[in-house]
Design a protein that fits this description.
Layout: H1 2-34, H2 39-61, H3 80-111, H4 116-123
Helix pairs in contact: 1-2, 2-3
């Protein structure tokens, strides 16, 4: 009896575990890229961390309910505000990433390198 209750609890926890594992991996990869010496990898690391945050927010906001339309019966509803804010964050994130990549390209044209240590020495 107790083992079957634990098995049912483990079955229902699998999606949360999978999402937690994916989010942890995305944050770890983003952090790894941000700590590199190559500026392009730093930009991609910031983009990965930003998208991981968006996935986390969507997960917290929930996606399992019905659309919140008046007159559509009761039950669980999904908050559309979270989805709208994440959509806005995705668009702003892509625009920011594009701008940063253009700035990295311009830095490469000026200094001939995108290595952070070499750029630090060039600024002295």
């Amino acid at each position: 009896m107790m083992a079957s209750a634990l098995l049912v609890a483990a079955e229902s926890a699998r999606p949360q575990f999978a999402v937690a594992l994916v989010l942890g991996t995305l944050f770890a990869v983003g952090t790894f890229l941000v700590l590199r010496r190559d500026v392009v990898r730093v930009v991609w690391g910031l983009a990965v961390i930003s998208q991981a945050t968006n996935v986390y927010l969507i997960t917290v906001g929930g996606v399992g309910g019905a659309a919140p339309i008046l007159g559509q019966g009761g039950g669980a509803v999904t908050d559309p505000l979270v989805q709208a804010l994440v959509l806005t964050a995705v668009v702003i994130g892509f625009a920011t990433t594009a701008l940063l990549l253009v700035l990295v390209y311009r830095t490469y044209q000026e200094h001939g390198t995108i290595d952070l240590d070499d750029l630090g020495e060039a600024m002295r």
